[in-house]
């Protein structure tokens, strides 16, 4: 298929034939079967055509993103309405539970008072007699059913209480704080190391993700080297600014974005931010997800803040809002080795105590390395210590 | 045991729960009835509910219930939802054939309207019950055929839907001056994914200079869902760009297709998808999410998206609306695929599929999609 042109209406307007007259339809329909692909041929060609088109769409999306056609703020606004307007239960929102629960509770009880009214003469009397005759039977069945539903509602209540308890614990450890911070230390760390990281991954042939790309120094460096790079961040103002500079950027958190990626799709992964501020479980999960999404021979770079940044007054708010203790290079290295990354090493900055942790993914994940629970993370961490 | 009469000519009784105008299943059944009569079979159509406009087309089901069993009678039940007809049909001794048009999974409805979702669950339960009684299951698509096999039908054959061609109309594409028209035809039900089309439209119109209108044609099934769609349209500022309508005639539908620049779908569940064929026949390029039976129906006559990602969707729309090479390829492929679903071949396939159970003079047997190896019990009526 011909490569799709960029969608700029002013340049494509003249080429598009959008008119379809009935003559043209008949012209197509009038073609002999011989000129049309046979159904079997269509079946065999369909899969290849579908894949080809999907690949074109992917390419076009990248192109349009880099042109700033899809500003993250637009996507965020549309998705926000899309999700917030969903009715009861459809959004799986916790706030819907109570109302759905009471509706279920109301219909969970059945009575045996079958309506007996009728417009037809005599029918109402017949119905009343029938009801009287079979009341013993209906009553028995209804009692059993109501017993069952009452127990079911109690079970749901207990499960709800357990979930609420769990949610309360999670909320205490899941405070989203990045939107409160315009600039973070990790932006400076990435800027300091941009050139070094460029040397490490600059000859990659596949896609590289910069997670928490901030003000874009890392993206700039890799683009300059001709690398196919894109970034993610949560700060809409920074993202829109990067879009205007024609960078391919998305509005997402690191873990959420990695979770959505297919296996082995990245040739390189550069991570900042979460490595400083994430909880222990989040950081362990990060490594598991990185292992899964990185292709064989790809490079992982963790850009970490040195301990002196924690004492810097300009970073106090950021670190006050951080949940986890900073990891030392040794801890990162040990964890990465246990996940079968190779050539794991740390690189210090000449001007600060910031550091990089670099690892190669020479043994690609077989797909079974997904992070599954906090317990798993804690066990792995305990082992590492 | 009732005594069966066997001196009568072969009679095929078709049953459907509800016969309504502007309904794809009704079109299919009426075409099938005519085709069966053309090959000399005595055919009657029975419906539990017959809409006013269709009164001359079917006989009330309660009149069938009074009929005595007959050795020369066969029953063909059109299954798409739960129905009171089933309990009467399974009590009869005549051979029963099911033509399965698909039942939307309950999970698509339960969060929006638990009441309506119950009828889906009822239909699913009846499908299992019918599998024990039916001599043959007919499926309008391979996707449906696989569901019949899962429901343990002993024999399954493919019988494509009979889709009348819309009259071709001369119609310039709508909004020629600087705006596009996108079309989707389908009931306003949660499984159809209208909200994903609206979301993608918001992104498309936000990103591209030449805006698009989205025309949504279909009857309301779940009121809460429709309310949500209207709220979403208002919240996204698309009041002037999204247009709802329903109850359109074949002629009006023909004009809608002819005037659309693209047919778009985010439907999550289709048993076949009649409008896709209508789109291909009217040279309307298609962009659809590749769900359920849709890939089987459209083949390479459409852009198929892997999921409902709004950016990919908007991008695919823009490609179809701006790239003439791609448009022409899709249109050409679509004509080939639509040719596969032409009415004449579909009638032949339906008759041949039915012939696996019903003796139809001059009609050869269609190969079975699945055969559990059990012999059809044609010795019905013997105690």
Structure description:
The complex is a heterodimer of chains A (385) and B (383). Chain A has two domains: 211 residues, Vaccinia Virus protein VP39 (Rossmann fold, 3-Layer(aba) Sandwich), CATH 3.40.50; 79 residues. In chain A, 54% of the residues lie in helices and 12% in strands. Chain A is an alpha/beta fold and 385 residues long. The N terminus and C terminus of chain A are likely disordered. Chain A is built from 16 helices and seven strands. In chain A, strands 3-2-1-4-5-7-6 form a seven-stranded mixed β-sheet, with helices on both faces. Chain B has two domains: 182 residues, Glycogen Phosphorylase B (Rossmann fold), CATH 3.40.50; 161 residues, 3-Layer(aba) Sandwich (Rossmann fold). The N terminus and C terminus of chain B are likely disordered. In chain B, 54% of the residues are buried. With 383 residues, chain B is an alpha/beta fold. The chains are: A alpha/beta (385), B alpha/beta (383). At the A-B interface, helix 1, helix 2, helix 3 and helix 4 of A face helix 7, helix 8, strand 13, helix 12 and helix 13 of B.
